[in-house]
Amino acid sequence: MNITDTPNTETGYIRDVLAKSLDLQTLTVSEVSSLLWVEDDELWSEIFQAASDVKERVYGKRIVLFAPLYLSNECMNDCLYCGFRRGNKDAKRKTLSMDEAVEEAALLARRGYRRLLLVAGEHPKRAGIDYFEKVIDAVYKGSDIRILHLNAAPMSVDDFRRLKASGVGVYQCFQETYHLPSYRRLHRAGAKADYAWRLGVMDRAIEAGFEDVGMGVLLGLYDWRWDVAALIAHCRSLMNKYGFGPHTLSVPRLQPAQGSMADHSRYRVSDDDLKKIVAVYRLALPYVGVVVSTREPADLRDELFTLGASQVSAGSKTSPWGYVKDGDTEQFEIGDSRSLEEVIGKIAGLGLMPSLCTACYREGRSGERFKHLAEEEAIKNFCHENAVLSLKEYVEDSASGEVKEQLTELLDEEIAKSRNGVAQKCKLIEQGKRDLHI
Ligand code: SF4
Fold first, then answer.
1. What pTM, to 2 d.p., does this model score?
2. Is the distance from the beta carbon of residue 75 to the nearest atom of ligand 1 less than 6 Å?
3. Is the CB–ligand 1 distance for residue 198 below 6 Å?
4. Does ligand 1 lie within 6 Å of residue 120's CB atom?
5. Residue of the nearest CA to atom 4 in ligand 1?
6. In the chain, what are the domains?
7. Which of 6, 149, 365, 434 is the most exposed place for a label (fewest CB within 10 A)?
8. For the segment 47-62, what is each residue's pLDDT rounded down to a tens digit?
9. Over the stretch 66-100, which tens digit does the pLDDT of each residue have?
10. What number does the ligand 1 atom closest to the CA of 86 have?
């Protein structure tokens, strides 16, 4: 089926599609299109419930937390929706020095983060592969951060090899929109104007050895149903070629930004639309992590936690030097300004399991191996116990006040029913041991 054909949204067919996903099979583009075009609210209730069930079967109750660390807001491109674009003459530009990056990372580590997503605009001279290698090495050596992911501009295979060797876990890059006329209208200058170079980025990253790649579209640039279906088509083409697809799918929604010239009304994605998108990503590729950022308001994020999201940022700043100082120009406005501690408390209060674990990347559970483990429902066994261990560390080192009491109670319950030596490992954490995982 072509993604412009009329999809089948009959109830019986949709239920068959949901049953396929509940069996942890990936969905075809045609099946995804059918889900996207459902209009019946009652049927959407069934879709949301199925997404929640699939998430629990693959990942259990865990929600992984991280923060972005913006390294540079200097950029040669001119994406009309972005505060970092070169045409934004009011922007205050900054690229972090090694010492500044380490200071930011160390502060975040003291708050309890163990995984960070490094982010930079596209500026090969100031923030190219030489810079990334140095800054990644400095942060690993100078802080307690255990895994760094990177969201940065597309690179050559050779540069991706260097990036992989530097210890980056996930390489993340969004196509923004797959709709070529819209892409050309929004990306008029710089290397990013080359649609095909960006479209081939994941092939080059995978060829260079990245098994974990993060993909997405910027929702609101074009018709969201079309772009979601096109993204799934891209994911499936990678799966057919390499045996595995993306490690994560993100759901960034267009937000106001200083100097933005994007039209926010034409392809607006409502809160209800965003819930549908999270559910459809979860059902389309059951093993994939679905990432929700602090672009979204707190109440909506809390709902998305139970609809299929498995990774969320918290306590984020979107400008370089934003944590230690107030930072300069932001990439976009934040919708949820709660601290990491507040979000962890909320997740636990919803009956879910907050996790700061980084074990899979460091134990080689990535790419095709991760996909198979997830499809066999084995990931949740590792993850739940590792989440408990990571939360125990968090309680010992960073939590405070009521959230500390809430988490201590939760940990007591979890330890009482745990296996695999989790209780003994928690004792060791109390005695000062760190980074214990399965
Ligand atoms: S979206 Fe990325 S590439 Fe485009 S202007 Fe912003 S930082 Fe630069």
1. 0.95
2. yes
3. no
4. no
5. 79
6. 63-356 (3.20.20.70)
7. 6
8. 999 999 999 999 899 9
9. 999 999 999 999 999 999 999 999 999 999 999 99
10. 5
